[in-house]
Amino acid sequence: MEIAKVTEVMIFDASEAYRPAASRGALVFFLMNELYKIHSFYKFSLDSFVIVVNRAIDIVAEMMNPKKEVAEAEEGEDGEPPAEGDAPADEEPAEDEEEAMTPRTLAKRVEALAESITYESFEYTRRGMLEKHKLLVATMLCLRILIKKKAIDSDEVMTLIKKEVAMDAPH
Predict the structure, then answer these.
(1) Low-confidence residues in the chain, pLDDT < 70
(2) 10 Å Cβ neighbour count for 13?
């Protein structure tokens, strides 16, 4: 029973740590699902989005795992993996690497995941769009991200989007 409680706390902490990346993924997915309002053939499924997110996660995993690059470099020109005796003795399994992640490394990983999910999703969406809609969707995505980060206020965005004439000109 004690192990279950510890595991539950670990899962909760991990889910909270990755919440910004998940939030960005949700933001991008819901933007993609609203694109049908621009044109009727902009429809995306959750299954295709999951594939894009998995690709983004794999890209970040490759980028943040220098041990894999070292192992690939040690394979040599013939493409064979090094013999068991050639591997470094202090090499740890992948599970231990996740546990040893410092808060700073975890924050960098989460930020990289959010950026990768955003980029890969936009690239996937952009491929199937008409040229005249690409800038519009890029602007929509940028503004939503800035609103989510609280870098700009949603009222400012609405002022930009809506065409309202000021009755009192500033002096």
Answers:
(1) 66-100, 166, 169-171
(2) 10
User: 86-101 in b/e burial notation, b at 16+ Cβ within 10 A?
Assistant: eeeeeeeeeeeeeeee
Tens of pLDDT, residues 33-72? 999 999 988 999 999 999 999 999 999 999 988 666 555 5
Retrieve residue 123's tokens.
């690239």
Alpha helix stretches (DSSP H) within 77-130 = 94-99, 103-127
CA 60 to mean position of chain CA atoms: 9
Query: Domain-by-domain residue ranges, the chain?
Result: 2-161
The amino acid at 85: G
- 16: tokens are 């909270």
- pTM value is 0.73
Compute how many other C-beta atoms are within 10 angstroms of the C-beta atom of residue 68: 12
